[in-house]
Specification:
With about 325 residues, the protein is α/β, with parallel strands linked by helices. The chain has eleven helices and 13 strands.
C-alpha cells in the first residue's frame, strides 16, 4: 500500500499497511506541487485536525459505544433536528452527537437545544464549517473518541433498538459499511458506461450515507488522503459524496457493504421533496460512478457485490409434518 494507491489496496490486512500521517504528508506535497500557493479545502481541514490531535491520529479508545454525525444546512429543519437528537440521546450506546453545520453564512440557531435536557448538552457538539461542501460530512472530528461512527441525514428516523442492533452487526465486521439503504451499480471498463439503481433483492454494492455505520478511521482517509479532484467533482455536482466514500471503503479494505433490515419501519422525510426525487438524480449518479471509477480507480471497479441481509434473530416457524399440505404446496407452485 502506497499513499497514492491506498484506496485501491483491496485487502483485509489494510490496517497493517495503513499509515495515515505519512500518507497525508505525501498527499499534501502532491497538492502543493499542483496548486502552488492556492491552499485547498483538504489542506486547511486536515492540517487543523492534525494540529488538534497531535500524535493521536487514528486513536479511538471507546469500542462499546458509537458517535453520531448528522449533516444539516437548513435552519428550517432545526426544530425537527432537535427532536431527532433528543431521540438519539436516549440510547446509552450513543456517546456523542456531532452536528455538521454546513452553512457557513448562518449561525446555528439557539433552538437546536430546545428539546435537549441540560445534562445532555455535553453529548451534543456542533461542527461549524468554513466551507460549504457536501464533503464536510466526512471530515475527521477532533473530539471523536469512538471507533464507530453512525452517519445519518437530518431527515431520517430509525428506531433505537434497530439502531443498536445495526451497531452490533458493525462490531462483527468493522471494515464494512453497514446500513439501511442498499443500492446496486454496474460499470463497463471498456465503454465506461455505468448504471445506478434501486433494488428489491440481492445483490447490492452500495449502502447510502443516509443511515450507515463506518470505521472512524475512514473519515480521515476520505477527507485527507483521497485525490481532491474527487472532492471537487462532488462539489461541482452537489452529489455523489456517498458513492466516492463507498468506493474508497471497499477499494481499500476489499470488504463488501452490509445491509441490515430494520424490524420497525424507518421514516425518510426526504422521499417527499429530497434531491433523490429529481428525475435527473439517477442519471447523475450513474455518471458519477463512471467518472469516479474511470478517473480515480483507473477503470478497475472497487465496489463489491453483496448478497447478505442481516436481521434480528426470530424463532423459525416449524409445523408438524403434513404430506397433504406439502403436496398441495408443491403442485400449486
Amino acid at each position: 500500500m502506497k499513499p497514492w494507491n491506498f484506496h485501491t489496496y483491496h485487502d483485509v490486512d489494510w490496517k497493517k499497511q495503513y499509515d495515515p500521517s505519512s500518507f497525508y504528508k505525501w498527499r499534501r506535497m502532491s497538492n502543493d506541487l499542483r496548486r502552488l500557493f492556492n491552499p485547498s479545502r483538504q489542506r486547511m481541514v486536515c492540517d487543523s485536525y492534525l494540529e488538534s490531535v497531535s500524535d493521536k491520529i487514528g486513536h479511538f479508545p471507546i469500542h462499546n459505544r458509537f458517535s453520531v454525525l448528522i449533516s444539516t444546512y437548513n435552519p428550517e429543519r432545526i426544530e425537527r433536528l432537535s427532536l431527532i437528537i433528543r431521540h438519539l440521546l436516549k440510547s446509552t450506546k450513543v456517546h456523542t452527537v456531532f452536528v455538521t453545520w454546513h452553512n457557513p453564512a448562518l449561525e446555528v440557531p439557539d433552538t437546536l437545544y430546545q428539546d435537549i435536557k441540560e445534562e445532555d448538552y455535553d453529548r451534543v457538539k456542533v461542527l461549524v464549517q468554513t466551507f460549504d461542501s457536501l464533503n464536510n460530512r466526512f471530515n475527521p472530528v477532533d473530539d471523536l473518541k469512538t471507533d464507530a461512527v453512525y452517519i445519518m441525514d437530518d431527515d431520517i428516523y430509525v428506531d433505537l433498538e434497530d439502531l443498536e442492533f445495526t451497531f452490533s452487526v458493525w462490531q462483527q465486521r468493522k471494515d464494512s459499511v453497514v446500513g439501511h439503504f442498499p443500492r446496486m451499480h454496474s460499470y463497463n471498463p471498456e465503454t465506461h458506461d455505468a448504471t445506478y439503481k434501486l433494488i428489491g433483492k440481492a445483490p447490492y454494492s452500495i449502502v447510502l450515507t443516509k443511515s450507515m455505520f463506518i470505521r472512524s478511521d475512514y473519515l480521515f482517509s476520505y477527507t485527507c488522503l483521497l485525490d481532491p479532484g474527487l472532492h471537487e467533482t462532488v462539489d461541482s455536482q452537489l452529489n455523489c459524496e456517498d458513492l466516492g466514500f463507498s468506493m474508497m471503503a471497499s477499494g481499500m479494505s476489499g470488504v463488501a457493504p452490509t445491509f441490515v433490515r430494520p424490524q420497525k419501519a424507518m421514516e425518510d422525510f426526504g422521499l417527499k421533496k429530497g434531491i433523490s426525487t429529481n428525475t435527473a438524480h439517477m442519471p447523475a449518479r450513474s455518471k458519477c460512478i463512471s467518472d469516479f471509477i474511470t478517473a480515480f480507480w483507473h477503470e478497475k471497479d472497487p465496489l463489491i457485490k453483496s448478497y447478505d441481509a442481516v436481521t434480528s434473530f426470530a424463532k423459525p416457524v416449524i409445523r408438524i409434518g403434513d404430506w397433504d399440505r406439502v403436496e398441495k404446496t408443491i403442485l400449486n407452485n
